[in-house]
Amino acid sequence: MQDLVSITVDGQTWQVPKGTLLWEACKSQGIDIPIFCYHTKLGPVGACRTCLVEIEGMSKGPTTACSTPVADGMVVSTRSPVVAKAQRGIFDFLLANHPLDCPICDRGGECPLQDQSFAYGPGTSRYIEPKRHHVKPIVLGPTIALDRERCVLCWRCVRFTAEIAEDKSIILLDRGEHTVVGTFQDEPYVSNFSGNVVELCPVGALTSRKQRFNFRPWELQNRPSVCPHCAFGCNLNVSIRKNDEVIRFLSRDNPEVDDSWLCDRGRYDYEFVNSPDRVTAPMLRRGDAFVQVPWDEAFQFIAGRLATVVEESGPDTVVGVASPRLTNEDLFVFKRFMNAVVGSVQVDHFPRPQLELAGDGETALETLNSLNASISSLDEARTIVLLGADPSLREPVMELRLRKAVNKHGARLVVINSDEIPLTGKAEARLTYPAGRLADMAHSLLSSLTGGDAPEDVGNVVATYLTEGPVAIVYDDRLDGVTDKNGALVAIGDLAAALGERVSVGVLPLLDAANSLGARDLGVLPLGGWGGSAVDRLLGPDSQVRAAFVLGANLARDIPAPETDRRLEQLDLLVVNELFLTETARLADVVLPAASFAEKLGTFTNSERRIQMVRNIVPTPGVARADWEILVDLSQYTDRPLDYALPQQVWEDIRRDVPVYSSISYDTIPPQGVRPASLQRA
Amino acid sequence: MDRILFKHVDVPDINRLPVYVENGGYSGLRKALTEMQPEEVTQVVMDSGLAGRGGAAFPTGRKWSFIPKGVLPTYLAVNADESEPGAFKDRELMERNPHQLLEGVAISAYAVRAEKAFIYIRGEFLYIEEILNAAVAEAYAGGYLGTNLFGTATSIDIVIHRGAGAYICGEESAMLDSLEGYRGFPRLKPPFPAVKGAYGQPTVINNVETLANVSHIVNNGAEWFRSFGTEKSPGTKICSVSGPVNRPGNYEVNMGTPFRTLLEDMAGGLVEGKKLKAYIPGGASAPMLPGTEANMEIPLSYEGYAAAGSAFGSASFIIIPDDACIIRAQLRISEFFAHESCGKCIPCREGTPWLAKTVRRIENGEGRQEDLPLLLDICDNILGRAFCPLGDFATSNIVASIKYFYDEYEQHILQRGCPYHSAASAVA
Ligand SMILES: Cc1cc2nc3c(=O)[nH]c(=O)nc-3n(C[C@H](O)[C@H](O)[C@H](O)COP(=O)(O)O)c2cc1C
Ligand code: SF4
Ligand code: SF4
Ligand code: FES
After folding, report:
1. Cβ distance B374 to B358 under 8 Å?
2. What is the per-residue pLDDT across B365-409, written as a single tens digit (0 to 9) for each?
3. What Cα–Cα distance (Å) separates residue A660 from each residue in A327, A610, A675, B278?
């Protein structure tokens, strides 16, 4: 139980945990105190002085609420005449040199300076001196533009780069009234996380070069969603215009996952949704060209060919490959369609690690799976080991979580990699191994841990860092460039298991795509599990496959070989569900228009097994539909129709089929998603 | 005259170690290290009533006692940034008798169990850095700095660090930023430097003059020290006197001495033909006082100037003669603060240049009647709202000059210009 103290603000008395900052305490009680420099995720700096309040017994006069921890019996006024005068004074200063051309400022309409000046400012300015002028905008880097006249010098951007991303790129230059935000010697600000500073900026000073002046905030509505670009699963607000246009992604704080940050890859990759190149109607191949056809005609065609293939060659000559970017609902219906409607066990997801796991490999994967840790458990870890993993590349926002775990929670970071990675500089210890030889390294670690032989540096790391828990292991499930993928996975699994016998251990995998873990949990794998590969079966040299359903997977691009194209072209039936006419779709007999993540209701399972919802925020282009809906509709043209009308119904079947999801009811998934009860606090 | 700090200032070559030692130098350090526990040193300084000479007059022994026990390393940082307009006492203390400072620093470091002390010198004091470096080298060679001093387990190193020249770097936490190699910005407190200072470790920060007193206190005791000065302000104080006086310079006074003695006897009064119009007792940050008879009698002490509505501060006396334009004097002060504002907080960053520009307009004959209430209101919006005292400092003379010389402001506004001869009205 936390210590509670009692405080009185504007006559209201309540209890808050000791040490809470006064501003946070007031906010939780709905008492508004203006702020600029303070930010919950950045902590206090005390620079702007807008949050002044009066605390009884403080002889020095008004105090900054953002930097003052509550104390028992504290009596505070946020609206006394003294406070009101102080606030008016600060806003008078703030606007003295600020341009008053809000109608042409990008922030106008969602500007804290505008809103708070209106609420707390003097209304008019007494400033008659010439205003400061700067060249504008200044290109800060490839993604960000800066308007120095609008900057209120709140330090948020500076602190983000100094304390969160730790690249220390954005700094303050010059002094006094000449102080400006900039970079050292005007070097470009290049960062994987640059968009966050735009979102942090409380005025129109920092803008995205991609988005500036593209919209007015009041045209937009924000809708909650989840980033579709990696398995970390950062939460988003999708800003839409006129109900049908996706304009930008904003962060949506999920303290358990993203801690309010987004990476630039996630933040800026949204234009695909409204792209004019989207596939908007079913298309049938006629010779070298495609013609648009009604759904009915496309389904009749597919059902006819499918029936012929199955009759002539049996259902196992039909394979299905789905992308792990699809929702759980899509993937589940896909699997059911293949199994129950087509009668084929040849389903798979792609991309995924191509492993040929024999018995012990499956066990390793199961072990790692069973040790699946939560992202927030990184904050409690004594040691975090990055084992052949580069989160900055794969799940970038994890980098920020790791920095925080080290800086705020004292975690010790151990980087074990064949290459330098961005987090190397943050590591307290590091081990390297020759490129590709991850398996050997994992064996050495295991050997040292279990009292066997190991090189001295490995032994030292094990002795210093792995003998005390909790230990969190982050490994890269894709095993790119690793020479013995199976061996490496088995060794990592054994290492985790052996560690687990000694200290408390959690494992976080870096995965291929937003819903890779969902695809696994749902068992979107061929007969024989990890040992088989429907993709190999489809593309292999003596392939017997005659028909394929490919959902969102771009085989022709990702397995670049003339053989791939030839095999796909030769099929009697290639059905591709896609957003675009991809390399693979171009080889299809039928292309079906699929809904994007912003156009359908469904769930993703992120790498910590958090079930999060994406929603139908904008209408699909043309007659596009969710993949699962397409398959349900198609099944009506066969003698084994599927019976789902709503994603909820699909989820109910998922719950029944996948034990780990059984505790989660679709209607009660909170805005921040939920991990299965069996895993919570792991 | 009662002298402590300037007692040996005229001894030839007192800046050289042998001469300093001949005159009793480093006996205080020997005594402290070989006969006293660190806590005893702190106690005697506490008992002496020595208060910080950097301006705020915080009791020195008490400051040392805030250093938490057992958190090592601790540091001592010496504030030699001396940038307050009107102040030039630390400069002379370092220039003339550097070993007196080094000895005080070493003893004080011992008292707070610091094995390393930093002397942070103002950027412009290049030649003083050289003097101190020479003295430090002598002290190492003579066995007064370094390891196992006087055969004890105590080791003390002194590092001289010169800043880049910024008034804000005299503010103690900004000084630590600058010392660590960052741009000097005052830090959010808490944590206070005594808990988390230089490089995140417990740190005591003291002014040059403060520490220069320490060897004398250790040698002669608290009672002896209290025999100087007043009950509330024991000891002596070096006062810098500048402006059109016959003998501008630094004078060591027994605290409690009336200002008249300093101005007339020591500094030789104003130069021929000039009369005292006003004076600033504690550097540009202290409110000016009109040159009335009553203000001539103020005892030179913290309490004396507090009672008069001003501040003794660093005891930097700026003399303003009758032929000087107060608005022009104020303009210098206001432009100084606008120039030196670090830019961290809004009230000071935006308020100080606003004040300066408004005063400049008035001096240039473009003042408006409403500018006077505006100036006072800007001051009201800065005072107590700014992040650090620099903002407050920028307001004190605006308020005082309008209070005491309202007519002169009005004259400027009504006559649309400065009534003084521009050359004669220039104030140092
Ligand atoms: C803007 C500003 C400038 C200051 N400049 C100096 C300075 O130049 N020298 C100094 O000793 N103290 C200066 N101080 C005071 C220091 O912050 C600090 O109080 C002092 O060094 C403590 O030493 P003391 O207790 O020995 O006086 C300044 C304070 C402020 C707010
Ligand atoms: S650019 Fe924006 S975030 Fe950065 S200091 Fe200025 S106002 Fe604050
Ligand atoms: S008052 Fe504010 S702007 Fe002025 S020097 Fe202090 S922190 Fe910097
Ligand atoms: S929000 Fe408190 S000082 Fe800026």
Report:
1. yes
2. 999 999 999 999 999 999 999 999 999 999 999 999 999 999 999
3. 17, 11, 10, 84
Residue B281 Cβ inside 6 Å of ligand 1? The answer reads: no
* pTM greater than the 0.80 cutoff: yes
Mapped onto helix, strand or coil, the DSSP state of residue B316 is strand
Categorize the per-residue pLDDT at B322 as very low, low, confident or very high, splitting at 50, 70 and 90. very high
- The CA R_g of chain B, rounded to the nearest whole Å, is 22
Asked if residues A224 and A615 have their Cβ atoms less than 8 Å apart, the reply is yes
The whole-angstrom separation of Cα A179 and Cα A198 is 19
Among A47, A61, A177, select the one facing B353 at the smallest CB separation: A177
Ligand nearest to the CA of B344: 3
Is the beta carbon of B86 within 6 A of some atom in ligand 1? no
Tell me how close the Cα of B307 comes to any Cα of chain A, in angstroms.
Answer: 18
For residue A353, is the peptide bond before it cis, meaning its omega torsion is within 30 degrees of 0? no
Q: Cα–Cα–Cα angle for B56, B239, B259, nearest 5°?
A: 100
Mean pLDDT of chain A: 95
**Do residue B344 and residue A47 have CB atoms under 8 angstroms apart?**
yes
Nearest to B384 among A62, A94, A175 (CB): A62
Q: Which residue minimizes the CA distance to atom 5 of ligand 2?
A: A153
A280: pLDDT strictly greater than 90: yes
Smallest CA-to-CA distance from B349 within A422, A49, A628, A214 is with: A49
d(CA B122, CA A673): 57
C-alpha A365: how far from chain center: 23
Ligand 1 atom nearest B84 alpha carbon: 8
Pair B337, B85: CB distance under 8 Å: no
> What average pLDDT does range A442-453 have in this prediction?
95
Determine whether the interchain pair A177/B345 forms a contact, defined as Cβ–Cβ distance below 8 Å: no
Contact A409, A379 (CB under 8 A): yes
Ordered domains of chain A (ranges, CATH): 4-96 (3.10.20.740), 283-346+516-679 (3.40.50.740), 359-510 (3.40.228.10)
Nearest by CB: B343 against A46, A61, A153: A153
Q: Is the CB of A151 under 6 A from ligand 2?
A: yes
- Chain A and chain B share a number of CB contacts under 8 A equal to 94
- Pocket perturbation via mutation, ligand 1, pick of B79, B176, B337, B342 by most ligand atoms within 8 A of CB: B79
Of A50, A93, A177, the CB nearest to B343: A177
pLDDT band at A360; cut points 50, 70, 90: confident
A156 lines ligand 2 (CB under 6 A): yes
Both tokens of residue B326? 């107060």
Mean pLDDT in chain B?
Answer: 96
Neighbours of B72 (CB within 10 A): 11
Long-range contacts of A116-124 (CB under 8 A, 24+ apart): A116/A34, A116/A36, A116/A50, A116/A91, A117/A91, A119/A32, A119/A34, A120/A34, A120/A50, A120/A84, A120/A87, A120/A88, A120/A91, A121/A87, A121/A88, A121/A91, A121/A92, A121/A94, A121/A95, A122/A88, A122/A91, A122/A92
The whole-angstrom separation of Cα A293 and Cα A589 is 12
> Choosing among A23, A128, A172, which should be mutated to test the B contact, i.e. which has the most B CBs within 10 A?
A128
Domains observed in chain B = 17-226 (3.40.50.11540), 236-321 (3.10.20.600), 326-414 (1.20.1440.230)
- Enumerate residues lining ligand 4, CB below 6 A: A 35-38, 46-51, 64, 66
* B182 CA to centre of ligand 1 in angstroms: 18
Residue B336 CA to residue B123 CA, distance in Å, equals 17
* Digit-coded pLDDT (tens) for B197-211: 999 999 999 999 999
Interface residue A3 vs chain B (CB under 8 A): no
User: Is A127 in CB contact (< 8 Å) with chain B?
Assistant: yes
